[in-house]
Give the backbone structure.
Amino acid sequence: MRGMNDSATAPRSVTAMTEDELAALFKGWGEPAFRATQLREFLFRKGVASYEGVTNISKKLRERLAAEAPLYELAYAGGTAGDDAHKWLWKARDGALIESVQIRVPGRLTSCLSSQVGCAMGCVFCATGLSGFERHLRASEILDEYLQMWGRSGEHSSHVVFMGMGEPLHNYDEVIKAIRVLNAPPPKGCGIGARRITISTVGIPPGIKRLAGEQLQLELAVSLHAPDDETRARLIPVSKRYPIKEVMESVREFSRKTRRMVTYEYVLLAGVNDSEAQARDLGGLLQDHPCKANLIPFNAVEGVPYKRPELEAQERFKAVLERFHVPTTIRFSKGRSVDAACGQLRRRSLA
Ligand code: SAH
Ligand code: SF4
């Protein structure tokens, strides 16, 4: 059983405090307020696993900090490293398990972050969707995922994608708050360019429209998974509320306002959404605005009846989209050796 712990009384982590709050804490200890900037700058520029690594602050002060203001909220709860992916598991103060992954492709390391514990959208092929919704993550917890992967691996990610557990636009405010810190230049944040931060959404038009007004040139990826509302509703229950037409209108607004090209994600499920006719319908939908398609061959999830199509069928689907002039990639599945598909490590550790 999950232990209820002292989350209400536990001291707040540095990642959960604003700079002013941290400065006030230092002042209360008789230290100069600029220690707050010093500490945050170090954290955001260097990436550290613990206070031991914060070498621009005296040992004595670090010891006091460790006891009264922990660096992070999340505790390390395990991980698995493969050649191209390193999966991390964290335990929140309320006992919730959260996963994140570092994914490597030549010349690039990407941090894949979770935005919620579980997910309320219930997509029928998704390990996270199957485990239901527990709660939203706080911005500080999201930031912790990024900073701790950096601090513990010693490797800095150039890119961030919200493709871990959860629907980021369902937890809009906290996700944007975390993104603003990830994006701000040090000492205010980690200095990751907005164009290197991707939000992947199941397709929630009000959220996409709101995002369009943020003055942030984020990358947007929209999980479409079917060219018609009927098939889509079978795979993504929440899409009954948001027809494809509405989703695409909001995407057009996003593209117009941000001048960013949007990516459509499409999980390929054999015999469900991978026929040539469906590829043609999808091509028809996507051909009239600048966008890319990213085909994701289904990753097996225990207890889920779907199968990934054969390579030939994947290539055929891609070729049809290209006939419609839609630039298309097939996502080479990273980190299968470490169970990197959405929600899988957590599911295993809860079993
Ligand atoms: N909630 C967001 C982001 C997290 S999931 C979204 O749905 O977009 C990131 C991507 O992984 C989505 O496109 C999702 O459909 C896909 N995905 C989920 N489970 C999968 C599985 N078992 N195999 C392949 N892709 C999967
Ligand atoms: Fe949630 Fe995305 Fe999984 Fe759907 S695919 S259940 S939206 S995490």
About this structure: Residues 125-126, 163, 167, 200-202, 223, 265, 267, 296, 298-299, 301, 341-342 surround S-adenosyl-L-homocysteine (ligand 1) (CB under 6 Å). Residues 139-153 form the longest helix (15 residues). The chain has two domains: 14-68, 77-350.
